[in-house]
Description:
Helix content is 16%, strand content 28%. The chain is built from 10 helices and 28 strands. It has helices spanning 8-16, 83-91, 128-134, 195-201, 232-236, 258-267, 296-300, 322-328, 339-350, 414-418, and strands spanning 24-27, 45-47, 52-58, 64-65, 71-80, 97-100, 104-106, 111-112, 137-141, 153-154, 169-171, 175-180, 183-189, 206-214, 228-229, 244-247, 272-275, 304-309, 333-336, 355-358, 372-375, 378-384, 388-394, 397-399, 404-405, 421-428, 430-432, 451-454. The protein starts with 7 loop residues before the first helix and ends in a 9-residue tail after the last strand.
Amino acid sequence: MPGVPLDATAMTRRATQELFPGAVVALGMGLPCHIPSEVPAAGVWFIADSGLLGNDGINANADTLDAGGNPVATGFGGSFTGVVDVAGILRGGHTDIAVLQPSQVASNGDFVHWTTEETPGLLATGSAVDMAYGASKVVALMPNRHSVGRSNIVKECNLPVDGVGKVNLIITTEAVIKVNRDGLELMETAPGWTADEVVGITDAPLSISPDLKEMTFQVPKLAAPNKVFPDAMEALKDVPEGATVNVDGFAGPGGMAHYLMTGLRNLGVKGLHLISNTAGVARVSAFGTPNIIDHSILVENNQVAKATASYPVSPSASRPSAFEDAFNRGEAELEVVPQGTLAERLRSGGAGVAAFYTPTGAGTLLADGKETRNIGGREYILEMGMRADFCIIRGYKADTLGNVVYKGTSRNFNPVMATTARTTVVEVDEIVEPGQLGPEEIVTPGLFIDRIVLRPRDFSAYL
């Protein structure tokens, strides 16, 4: 006789074994909502499409809701955001794992979210599609059998699919099944179940792994990774030659990561492509003084090959910036982008939007060589989203998980730039422990921050 199907607790505990320290994990409705109750949130970022970043498990006394509408506690270092930002996190490739409860999964990894044969004309995609298309790995946590006895794991989906080839692993009430290019492979069986019994209740063909084993339910201990680096040069030592680097700054010194910029200068990395609102005009504008640290220190050190900026020139023709001089000598390239378009290209890149249409610049030199389209009687330009290899930003405070708050208008481009880079490094005046920043005051969630550097108290922003 086959064994007893696993209960929800056993299934979610097995699912925790797919997590790792610092993982960003998107949780769909149903069984996935129970995972945070098994794992302390300090070591993992649990994302709910309700806007909660840092879920510490179901708690009847809490007034915060998860994706399934369950009351949940906010973990230390947790924060809140809106649905637009959550969608950007999910779609933009910032999640390591998405755990969903589909109603059907096919041999090739196609899945149907919550549409059923009883309601074939009613699609229920929710945020599951965003999760599946943005995550590096998708885990289906689901019963093998439907309540009427048929299998939920099929050769081909017979309902409209919500994701094509997206599921990588299936954890069921009887087994763990891996989705390979050539079909499904039985990796683990629940206690009391044999491979033949699992094959017998599954409609899709299953191959048997030569390493087949019995499922275990040990919950891993997941400590948060250490993001604090001793100094700027250590945090930036792996910036490669030719890297694209986001560098904040709003003409003047506010919001500039002067210490990190100095570290990048001292490393001497060449061929950089800087993405910034300006290309270093603080020294030659009314905002700064001739010896303030800005992008110019990188230009003067012959490290900048290209700049993408909205305001690359000095407000005074008699006081050209270092970048202007380099450009006029033919030593650096320039792409000029309107400020709002620059912000939206960064936001789009970080949110997984490849391109967008904007009316800004239509009919001007800024539209040369770009696709245009008439929409509703108005001309629009197609602009591309932007991503970077590294990003150096300036915050006021950060906790050790990487959550950042800013001071005043120094926020400007910093938050959006943080979302677009493979590696984001923040320079702050103070580092605190998780829980010392209020969830509502956090602007940049720690899931976007890879490295934290404390700005030395004796460091001067002036040369």
